[in-house]
Amino acid sequence: MHSLQRVLPVQRSLRRGPLAAVSWLLLRTCRAHSSLPSMASPSRERQENGVQKDFSSRLATGPTFQHFLRSASAPQEKPSSPEAEDPPPYLTEEELLGGQRKVYLETYGCQMNVNDTEIAWSILQKSGYLRTSNLQEADVILLVTCSIREKAEQTIWNRLQQLKTLKTKRLHSRMPLRIGILGCMAERMKEEILNREKMVDLLAGPDAYRDLPRLLAVVETGQQAANVLLSLDETYADVMPVQTSPSATSAFVSIMRGCDNMCSYCIVPFTRGRERSRPVASILEEVRKLSDQGLKEVTLLGQNVNSFRDNSEVQFNSAVSTNLSRGFTTNYKTKQGGLRFSHLLDQVSRVDPEMRIRFTSPHPKDFPDEVLQLIQERDNICKQIHLPAQSGSSRVLEAMRRGYSREAYVELVHHIRESIPGVCLSSDFIAGFCGETEEDHLQTLSLLREVQYNTGFLFAYSMRQKTRAYHRLKDDVPEEVKLRRLEELITVFREEASKANKTSVGCTQLVLVEGLSKRSVTDLCGRNDGNLKVIFPDAEMEDYINPGPKVRAQPGDYVLVKITSASSQTLKGHVLCRTTLKDSLAYC
């Protein structure tokens, strides 16, 4: 591994406050030692050597790593306009511009990564890059990655092998192909990626997307570049994500980043850092713009979305303690003050009464009565709650450091269903966690039967380095046992979900149309209030918004659908009419 002799400093990071804020810093540039043979012409090689020599001379007289550390120890005021920053001393303003180079973005993993892709593209677009959906014409390929399980990372390694052929072909061209790894995998593996795959030019962690123009400029000089600094305050509040699908009817709005829960199995606190929330005002501004664009649904997004706490202004910092769900505890000291999730949810739901509001992914501990009451009262807040259980065994839940017992979780389920009649519940479960016995597994199966979720996300346990489980527990459940238990969980979940969903047969439901069904060009699909997929024929119907000739449903329309059949994953029915969210209340 190359020694870190001189660092290319991120100007913004010098304002990030105490040195603790840079504990996960890696800013590394080195000569790109590609295993691919050089195919450049002599004139091209002389040109590149000239650029590299000029860059190296500027770098040699630039700031050192010690200068970065000294500067980081003294907090500096954050300017109000990040775009107005001066370029680093070793790069010119022109070198920071994209110069119409084409970027291909590929997203893996959770909804947070979808939102991160939109943020990264917004930043690159402002720097003069162009977006392409054609891999073959891309000058830069950026993979937004996931590290939640080993399988997710293996998918990226396989993809890099596929891209190696494309990069080799591009050595013959005037513009070399640059490949970057963004997101959680870059944060978790850091230099290992650069050392294992020499074809990778760039790494950027989840908090380093503002630095992409600089990293890409460094890469163009023949260096590898990385910034995997985790921040205590980065929320991209001033970056307006660029919607990747112009025909979308819904959007994700990131309201907070990071997680403080430190569940023993989870890598998220180590790849996305500590919890920090966006100011309420910036969230409302983004939601208003989405409403103005005609979008009909927003999902408030965060690793622990309902622990939202806006401390951005002094008057918010009262001494009021956090209200938790009854019988739940935290792994950290109780937090005080700030505008809480119930306040944000209230304000967001008032922006547009015709816009549906969802949120994910919450933690069960953060469902105080004021949140449940608000969901019940507001017609445009969807009556659907994701309630990750992870296990049905209190013993395993304690080992996972979830902060609740099975009994407390079941009591919360009953309380939610009493507070919000007809609510749809979804959950996450892990099969084969450290020390899980057959009895523990049977308790999880019984919880699935008892709660009867509408939707579920079930996975076999995958141990991750850096987590508490990695350091304190033993991954002692054999792989074949994990997979067998997972199959049993899936079977029981589907049985119970089918029962739960069949209670909708004969009911009329409001559906937000998304587009054509993937399985039939004669059917449309959309989602109901409970976030279940609803399939119905593309037929003419009455228009209750503008009475007159019959119409066909279009993406973004609200329609009433009479449900005729149900499975564990899908509802089917026939369309009745086009309507509005407000007017539908008389029929649903």
UniProtKB/TrEMBL annotation:
Its cofactor is [4Fe-4S] cluster. GO terms for cellular component: cytosol; mitochondrial matrix; nucleoplasm. It is an enzyme of class 2 (transferase). Residues 101-221 form the MTTase N-terminal domain. InterPro entries: Elp3/MiaA/NifB-like_rSAM, Methylthiotransferase, Methylthiotransferase_CS, Methylthiotransferase_N, Methylthiotransferase_N_sf, MiaB_methiolase, rSAM, rSAM_horseshoe. It catalyses: N(6)-dimethylallyladenosine(37) in tRNA + (sulfur carrier)-SH + AH2 + 2 S-adenosyl-L-methionine = 2-methylsulfanyl-N(6)-dimethylallyladenosine(37) in tRNA + (sulfur carrier)-H + 5'-deoxyadenosine + L-methionine + A + S-adenosyl-L-homocysteine + 2 H(+). This is Mitochondrial tRNA methylthiotransferase CDK5RAP1. It comes from Chinchilla lanigera. The lineage of its organism: Eukaryota, Metazoa, Chordata, Craniata, Vertebrata.
